[in-house]
Every structure is written in C-alpha cells, then in structure tokens.
Amino acid sequence: MKIELKEILIKDVAMNYIDSAEEGVIGYDGKLNIRPKYQREFVYDEKKRNAVIDTIFKGFPLNVMYWVKNEDGSFEVLDGQQRTISFCQYINGDFSINNKYYHNLTQAEKDKIDNYKLMIYFCEGNDKEKLDWFEIINIAGEKLTAQELKNAIYTGSWLTSAKTYFSKSNCAAYLLAKDYVNGSPIRQDYLETALKWINNGDVNGYMATHQHQPNANELWTYFRNVIEWVKMTFVTYRKEMKGVIWGALYNGFKYDTFDTDKLEEEIKNLMMDDDVTNKKGIYYYVLTRNENYLNIRAFSESQKRSAYERQKGICPICHKTFDIKEMEGDHITPWHLGGKTTAENCQMLCLECNRRKSGK
Q1: Model pTM?
Q2: Which run of H or E residues covers position 353?
Q3: 133, 23 Cβ separation under 8 angstroms
Q4: What is the CA radius of gyration of the chain?
Q5: CA-based angle 291:284:332, to the nearest 5?
Q6: Has residue 289 got a pLDDT over 60?
Q7: CA–CA distance, 72 with 57 (Å, rounded to integer)
Q8: Per residue in 120-129, pLDDT tens?
C-alpha cells in the first residue's frame, strides 16, 4: 500500500468546481470526485459549514483528509467530503458568512483562503490493501458503513449503474421494496442487501467480478424478481415481512409451486399462535419446515418443576431417576402435531432421551 502526505492549496482543489445532478460533485480541475459513488448524500449544516470557513480564515489546521488514487490518475475523496464541499461552495458563492460572500472579500482575504494548505493523504494500492487501510482510518466523524468501504474499492461503470437503482433517495429499489427491506438507500443498505441475496453473502466476490461491466442490469433484474416473487407468494402483507432475508428464500424455492391461499391460512394461524415467539420466522418456517425459526415458547420453570415432581424425577423413556438439573422440558404432544406449551403437555426427559427424541 502506497500512502503519501501532500500539501495542496484550497484554490487548486476548488478549481473548476462542479455540483450537478448529472456530473456529481467534482473539483481539482476535473480530477477529483468530491462526492464519490460510495459516499452519502449530505453536507454539513450551516453551523459546521461556517466553522470550516472560520478555521481557514484564522489559519488553524483542518483535520487531515484522505484521497484515493485511481488507476486512471484521478482521485476520490475517502474522508473530508463535507469540509471540501464547504470551502468549495463558499468560493463558488453559494453562501455567505455574516453577509460576506467570497466575492466581497478583499484580495488579501481571498488570498488567505486560496493559499490555505490542506494536508491530504494519497492512498494507492490493490483492493485488499486499500480496504484494510480504509477500515483502519474509518474511526472518526460519520463512519463509512461496510458497504461504503467496499464501494470505495470497486468503483467503476458497474457501481455507477448500481447506484442509480439502489443508492439514491427514493431510488427505484426503495420505491419497490421499502416495505420488505430494512435500512436506507443512501447508507448503501439496499445495495448491500441485493448483493448479499444474489451471491449468497459474498458481496466482495460479486463486486470484483462485475466491477468493470457496463451496467448493473443483472442485479436490478434479480432484485425485482425477488420482490415480485414475494408479493405473489405471500399475498397478504404484514409488518413482519420487513427484514426477512427474501433472497435466500427466493434462491431456494423460486421454482416451487405453492397454494397461496393455503399458505396464507397457515401464516394467519401461526401469527395467532402464542407459542410462536418469532413471528418473522414464520415466513422461513412455512417454506423450510424448520421449527427453529419459530422460537417455540419454552416451558416455564414452574411448569417444569410441576412435571418433575409429578414424575418423581423419573424419565418416562429410559425410566431412570435424575436430578432436575439433568432434565429438560419436552412437549408430550409435539408442537407441530398441535401440542401446546402448557403444564398438561409438559414432561421432563433426561438430556440424552430428549436429544434422541428431538433428532427423530
């Protein structure tokens, strides 16, 4: 990993500053992407923004910034985006301080801003080296998320396309799936979710493979297919559906045919079942039949003590006597056969017998 500390004048960073919906936020005479594809879409509030300009006016040092050097010789801001935007906007005439715009300053005052020296680390290296370094310096201010750090590594045409679908306020992915996916598009949660779904959790692998592809149409098509499959399979929306790992269920069951009315009836009954403590897990259970997703309510200590005393400490399967600490509560009639978590349906089995029964 190559890391160089440079002194760069503010006037050079602000040269040909552009902030547009089409081109993004650019500076350093077109060589610096100030708001790169992996950053969030916000700027400092007025108080923080003015503090940056005041610091420069007084000649006090701003915190060191970090730029990533790309293969084509251009740069992207990794840390220092808001500070950079603040002084560029001031020089651009976007705001005033105490009713004093940049163009109202004396030449001496302008020179003080223009010739202010910024301390900037240039970071250059392979994907792993950069990711390791970014994780080390990601320790202050508005921290980058894990996905934002990955975006810093795998910039390119594919990421530009993916961001249009998944990473903008009110983007297509958010409008389609806001009731099914947790998080915020601008914090890269939607992009990260889609990547985890399509590649079984290997986000880095997918991004590395597709980094230089011209667009992210494959990922967007996949994401739409997942959400449409969910809507068609589970015909009644419930709040518990938000945050389910739908991609895993889609990948495993997209070719299966379901009686959606029957599925809905089962889900409704499970939602009303007091023994089911993880209602979100119902959607996994009805497809996988794995009861662990439901977190079936355990017997209380008093229910287990009552059963233990009733049995006089004898395991009804192996007929040996045990201390209560050596036994576990068990449903006499299994939950999936209609047995409830009640005192009447509780029996105490020794650890070995309970494991054998559970394994059947």
Answers
A1: 0.62
A2: helix 351-358
A3: no
A4: 29
A5: 15
A6: yes
A7: 34
A8: 988 887 767 7
- Strand, coil or helix: 146: helix
What is the SS3 assignment for 161? helix
- At 236 the three-state DSSP class reads coil
Q: Phi and psi at residue 272, in whole multiples of 5°?
A: -90, -5
Task: Give the pLDDT of residue 238.
Answer: 97
CB atoms within 10 A of CB 223: 28
Q: Cβ distance 234 to 267 under 8 Å?
A: yes
**Dist CA 265 CA 283 (whole Å):** 12
Q: Which residues make beta-bridge pairs with 100?
A: 97
| pLDDT at site 295 | 87
Cα torsion angle, 303, 305, 309, 312, sign: positive
**Nearest CA among 313, 307, 316, 318 for reference residue 346:** 307
- 61's CB contacts (< 8 A; 6+ apart) are 55, 119
**348 and 304 Cβ atoms separated by less than 8 Å:** yes
Q: Please, what sign has the CA dihedral across residues 198, 200, 201, 204?
A: negative
Tell me the one-letter amino acid at 165.
Y
Residue pair 226/171 in contact by the 8 Å Cβ criterion: no
Determine the Cα angle at 264 with ends 262 and 269, to 5°.
100
Mean pLDDT of 269-297: 93
User: What is the spatial distance between Cα 158 and Cα 149, in angstroms, rounded to a whole number?
Assistant: 16
Structure token pair of residue 351: 């650890």
Count of other CB atoms within 10 angstroms of residue 96: 14
For the record, the structure tokens of 218 come out as 């494959």
Q: Does the pLDDT value for residue 3 go beyond 90? A: no
Instruction: Give the count of beta carbons closer than 10 Å to the beta carbon of residue 73.
Output: 7
Whether the Cβ atoms of residue 185 and residue 143 lie closer than 8 Å to each other: no
Handedness of CA 311, 316, 318, 323 (dihedral sign): negative
* 3-state SS assignment for residue 349: strand
Euclidean distance between CA atoms 219 and 134, whole angstroms? 26
Residues 6+ apart with CB under 8 A from 274: 297
pLDDT range class, residue 292, cuts 50, 70, 90: confident
Three-state DSSP class for residue 18: strand
